[in-house]
Amino acid sequence: MPLQQGDFVYLPAGSTITAWDYRTPEAPRLAGDTRRQPLAGVITGIASRGRYLYASWQRQDGSSGLAIYSLLDPGRPRLIDGGLLRKSASPEAITAISIDGDYLYAFDSQRGLVVHSLADPLYPRAVRVVEAGPADVVGMAGSRIFTAGRTLLGDTLLQVFDNSRKNLPKTVTSENLDGFDNFRLQFSWPLAVGFGLGVNLYYLPPWGGPPLLWGSAAPGEALFNGFIAGDKAYGFGASGVSIWSLRLPVRRVGHVDFGNAFAAETTAVQGRWGWVATSTDQLALFDTGKTARLASVVDTIGGADVRDAAIIDRTLVLLQNTYGLSAASDGDLTPAGRFDADLPKAKQARAFEDMSVDGRRAYLAAWGYGLIVVDLSNPLSPRELGRLPAEFSSAIAGKGRHVYLGTATNGGSMTSVDVSNPARPVVRAAVPVDTRVERLQLAGSLLFAATAPDAAGGPPGGLRIFDVSNPAQISEIGRYTDDCEFASDLALSDDARTVHLRCSTGLHIVDVSLPGRPARLGLYPASQGGRAVALGSGTVFIAADGDVEEVDVRNPRQPTLLNRYRLPAEAQRLRVMPGRRLFAFTGPGGLQIIKL
Fold it and tell me: Which CA distances in Å does 157 have to 21, 58, 133, 160, 328?
């Protein structure tokens, strides 16, 4: 959801906002960001009025709010108020916002359209609630507000509101459109274009009522998003950017190359310029003048969905779910390089879910493909060494000559791979397991697995221990399921005698000094709302209900809570890093760095 105002474009990512200076469109530069002032939740929408920028946010615990930034220095947004809205607003799940004059409109998936007065711009005041459906794309023109959002049934809901009375919007159009043909809707009043399996041109009657389908065309591929500029629509798919004339009949009239078009997430248009933010951590600018072209692309900070991290030569190497690896400054996360894996242009064909780093080599588990081996000799320029198809790989551990892959889709499995020649990885053994493999950790000839039931009523998960002294013959030698049917993560002590297991019932501290007979030493109860665990110095960090709890485990029989750290979203992984830092990988909430 890029927002252009003056010379700057504001781009939310997780719980923060970056400001990009576009005075030179072909060479934009990062002007500032709000990483020192993260919000309490994931930003879902932004809008501006004068010298103020407003951002809606929500957390998984059901809380939601509205933050206010000062744009007195437009290149450095400064947070004024990031707290919850006043009680009169009672926010629950704001998904998008827009501003018209002295009113702010918050689309709340639980309550509807909440109208706020901005008579005092620092104190938005809820004055009315209007019935409305889901919305994640919002536009305004004249006396109309138009929105699009996905329904629980997978349809795309198109809504138009008559805003002649700004404090009392009135629904004039509410229509469910086919969600496959119209995966995303974009607007240029009085027109709307649906991008999906088709390119569909709709006319929105000013008097209201159902939209009229004026024309459509088959793109020959799925389009995941798009925008409208002038009399043309720009659709983003695996082959790049296709350009469509909106003068009937709807037809393809051009093409612009853009390798990550398939990952287009949000768009914005101002005059001849169109911005696209991607889930591959890029902000692209398109010039839609006489000859359409890609004007510039910048790598954005952090990542849209960071899954893991390692430090090589003071460079931070980040596992990025949609494309592979990025390299960044360990100090301020400034992008310094990237590795885009050569895989099909579809998110489900990628999905990098886990990484194991051994020396200067990274092993990546791509759910949609398998194993990718990457050379980190120069961490600023990672390069592929080899690959092995192993679909649904979601957990990985490796050291020396062998790597082990675990799966959690369509039945669990464990696979050992010989990587002594990284250009030609070879499978040495593949064995099915009756649980999903969620996480792996290797210690010598023992492989420890956190596992979960493969199906309702199936065998319980928990901790499973495998002997891999002969990688061609993987054998299970121990199992722990004591009140731990679902285990999602584990952290092994340095001496490999204790496993800290994140179960749905809490943190289980398990003695594995006798691998064939693992036994519980202690239990720290924690909610089911958390999946990750990491080992500190005499402490363990566990994800719980959108927070991180730091637990003293020096006496494993009596673990004790020490600290609680709040996150904008649930941590999918935790990792203790040099410099007394805890990295919390929160998916849509971004990478959160906690100073310990």
Answer: 34, 21, 7, 10, 39
List 592's β-bridge partners, or say none. 584
Q: Are 176 and 112 in contact (CB under 8 A)?
A: no
Reported as type and span, the H/E element at residue 451 is strand 446-453
- In tens, the pLDDT along 201-240 reads 999 999 999 999 999 999 999 999 999 999 999 999 999 9
Q: Are 187 and 228 contacting, i.e. CB atoms less than 8 angstroms apart? A: yes
Among 83, 128, 134, residue whose Cα is nearest residue 110: 134
Q: Which two tokens stand for residue 22?
A: 């576009």
> Cβ(10)–Cβ(21) under 8 Å?
no
- Considering the entire predicted model, what is its pTM? 0.93
Integer Cα distance of 148 and 178 in angstroms: 12
- Cα dihedral sign for 27, 32, 35, 40? negative
Residue 305 structure tokens = 């969905």
Q: Which helix (H) or strand (E) holds 415?
A: strand 412-418
Distance CA 219, CA 224 (A): 11
Q: pLDDT tens digits, residue range 282-331?
A: 999 999 998 899 999 999 998 889 999 999 999 999 999 999 999 999 88
Q: What residue type is assigned to position 444 of the chain?
A: G
